[in-house]
Amino acid sequence: MEIELKAKLIEEYLDEILPNASCELNYTTDYSFLIAVMLSAQTTDKKVNNVTKILFDKYKSLDELANAKYEDIYNIVKPLGLAKNKANNVIQIASILIEKYNSAVPVNKIDLMSLPGVGNKTANVVHCELFKIPEFPVDTHVERIAKRLGLVNESASVKQVEEELKHIFKKEHWIKLHHQFIHFGRYYCKAISPKCDNCKFASFCKKAFKS
């Protein structure tokens, strides 16, 4: 199947089953979203939401976070894993935002990626959600779907997956598709026991052929 036709079918079906897919991380401020995305590495949004509710109820400003005791932050973020690094990152991000960026999350991607714990994917997610700048962030769900549907090679790196998806789909659809791919991977095309019955991608999905 030609990639253009496949892309059209993918967009149509995702629009049909996931028309309102959106970010599932809870946040109230730009910095709380940035920290939530940083904390989401190698864990679930549900767990992050549980932790950030405690974190931001206790520390209600960047100043309070910047001056927090490491041990206290560590104990709050411990359920997420990688707690030592994440606790340090929370405090350092708060301090740097205050000192360098007038307590605001920077828009510039290089500035974002200079913050502790903020890599390419996190910066892309911040661009999409906070600033509505078109990006196609690739997490484990997006990578899995892209490879199962034959949009990229199985051996493609995360960066290669991102570049190929940006090439295949129109820029104005990147943010919407990013959310749809995540929700499709989270609730339909799961890593284990995907819901292949009645899926309109079955005719070209590599996982469906193996089932």
Describe the structure.
The protein is mainly alpha-helical and 211 residues long. The protein is built from twelve helices and no strands. It has helices at residues 3-17, 30-39, 45-58, 62-66, 70-77, 83-100, 109-113, 120-131, 140-148, 158-168, 174-187, 206-210. Helix 2 (30-39) packs antiparallel against helix 8 (120-131) and helix 9 (140-148) crosses helix 11 (174-187). It is elongated, with a radius of gyration of 18 Å. It starts with a helix and ends with a helix.
Q: What number is the mean pLDDT?
A: 96
Helix content: 55-70%
The major pleated sheet works out as: none
Anisotropy-based shape: elongated
Helix and strand pattern: HHHHHHHHHHHH
Low-confidence stretches: none
Q: Alpha-carbon distance between the termini? A: 20 Å
| Radius of gyration computed on alpha carbons | 18 Å
- Beta content comes to under 5%
Structural class: mainly alpha
Number of strand segments: 0
Helix run count:
12
Summary of the model, kept short:
The chain has about 210 residues and is mainly α. The protein contains twelve helices and no strands.
Secondary-structure topology with pairs:
Blueprint: H1 3-17, H2 30-39, H3 45-58, H4 62-66, H5 70-77, H6 83-100, H7 109-113, H8 120-131, H9 140-148, H10 158-168, H11 174-187, H12 206-210
Helix pairs in contact: 2-6, 2-8, 5-6, 9-11
